[in-house]
Design brief:
The chain contains 5 helices and 2 strands; from the N terminus they run ααββααα. The chain is mostly helical and 131 residues long. Strands 1-2 form a two-stranded antiparallel sheet. β1 and β2 form a beta hairpin. α1 crosses α2. The protein is globular.
């Protein structure tokens, strides 16, 4: 869950607060993926950031309401978003270099795995007294 909060904070703040920079440079160290996929649209980029911030806020709430039902709802939200996000990008790789396309697919798979991971109940701790 910590990873989802970090991802949501970085992507959400960057996209919402600095939409032109996000469009021009995301994800920075791995390439510049967004600007390769069509013209800049500030409204769309800011909405993207707002959605990430909303998912991040929900993930932060999971730290306070530590219940399996909350984790399942977070898992649903992150997984649905992740699968749909992956589905779009994996069918729109033709304009990218092989290294950019490969990096993007890996990052998107990791995002789906993080969402699915929220569904998995924590393992019960064994008592040190042998019981």
């Amino acid at each position: 869950m910590i990873a989802t909060v970090i991802i949501a904070a970085v992507v959400g703040v960057w996209s919402f607060a600095f939409p032109q920079s996000f469009y021009d440079h995301f994800p920075s160290v791995l390439g510049e993926w967004i600007s390769q996929d069509g013209p800049y649209n500030e409204h769309l980029v800011r909405d993207h950031g707002a959605m990430y911030l909303a998912l991040g806020a929900a993930s932060v709430a999971g730290f306070f309401w530590r219940e399996q039902a909350v984790y399942r709802v977070l898992g649903i939200a992150w997984t649905v978003f992740g699968v749909l996000h992956f589905s779009y990008h994996v069918t729109h790789l033709g304009h990218m270099s092989a290294s950019d396309a490969t990096s993007q697919v890996i990052v998107l798979i990791v995002a789906v795995v993080l969402g699915v991971g929220l569904f998995i109940p924590p393992r019960a701790r064994r008592s040190k007294t042998g019981g």
